[in-house]
């Protein structure tokens, strides 16, 4: 199993975060706080009209104060529960939402690149992650 001490884990999480932040449009909340990929994931999963346990778990953690921290916790939760690919795929279903959140260079806007990314993430479902949540 992959644990918190794994260098590969840190590299994987950094790459996932880079991918989710790449060409992300700058958006602000009502109070002026910069939105991040966490907000994109929340909106995408809420649109599917099903409560995602990962979102519920992360929002219940009082120590997490920033969207980036919440996003990182969500990625870890999804890796442990083998839900990362499915969760991201649900967020990527709506082309209008993707254009609202990402500029044209985002690989999520390319059907071929999006399929490759999701295919790779589904392969991670075979890996066991033992991470502190």
List keywords for this structure.
133 residues, mainly alpha, Methane Monooxygenase Hydroxylase, Chain G, domain 1, 7 helices, metal-binding, zinc ion binding, zinc, cytoplasmic vesicle, lysosome
Descriptive report:
The protein has helices at residues 7-21, 37-47, 53-59, 67-80, 84-91, 95-101, 111-123; strands spanning 2-3, 129-130. The protein is mostly helical and 133 residues long. It has one domain: RUN domain (Methane Monooxygenase Hydroxylase, Chain G, domain 1, Up-down Bundle), CATH 1.20.58.900. Strands 1-2 form a two-stranded parallel sheet. Helix 2 crosses helix 5 (84-91). The radius of gyration is 14 Å and the shape is globular. 23% of the residues are buried. The mean pLDDT is 93.
Task: List strands and helices in order, with pairings.
Blueprint: E1 2-3, H1 7-21, H2 37-47, H3 53-59, H4 67-80, H5 84-91, H6 95-101, H7 111-123, E2 129-130
Parallel strand pairs: 1-2
Helix pairs in contact: 2-4, 2-5, 3-4, 5-7
Subcellular location: Cytoplasmic vesicle, Autophagosome; Lysosome
Keywords: Autophagy, Coiled coil, Cytoplasmic vesicle, Lysosome, Metal-binding, Zinc, Zinc-finger
Domain RUN: 3-133
Summarize the structure in short:
This protein is mainly α. It has helices at about 5-20, 35-45, 55-60, 65-80, 85-90, 95-100, 110-125; strands at about 1-5, 130.
| Percentage of β-strand residues | under 5%
Biggest sheet strand line-up? 1-2
Structural class, please? mainly alpha
Question: Mind telling me the CATH superfamily name?
Answer: RUN domain
Look up the CATH topology.
Methane Monooxygenase Hydroxylase, Chain G, domain 1
Helix content: 55-70%
SSE string = EHHHHHHHE
Spatial shape: globular
Q: Which architecture does the CATH hierarchy give at level 2? A: Up-down Bundle
Which residues form runs of ≥5 with pLDDT under 50? Answer: none
> How would a textbook summarize the main sheet?
2 strands, parallel
Helical element count? 7
End-to-end separation = 15 Å
Radius of gyration: 14 Å
Mean pLDDT across all amino acids: 93
């Amino acid at each position: 199993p992959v644990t918190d001490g794994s260098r590969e884990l840190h590299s994987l999480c950094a790459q996932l975060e880079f991918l989710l932040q790449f060409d992300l449009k700058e958006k602000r909340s009502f109070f002026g706080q910069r939105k991040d990929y966490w907000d994109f994931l929340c909106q995408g999963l809420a649109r599917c009209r099903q409560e995602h346990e990962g979102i519920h778990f992360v929002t219940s953690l009082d120590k997490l104060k920033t969207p980036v921290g919440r996003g990182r916790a969500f990625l870890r939760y999804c890796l442990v529960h083998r839900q990362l690919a499915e969760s991201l795929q649900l967020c990527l279903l709506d082309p209008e939402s993707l254009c609202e959140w990402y500029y044209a260079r985002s690989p999520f806007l390319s059907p071929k690149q999006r399929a490759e990314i999701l295919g790779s993430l589904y392969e991670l479902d075979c890996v066991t992650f033992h991470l502190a949540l």
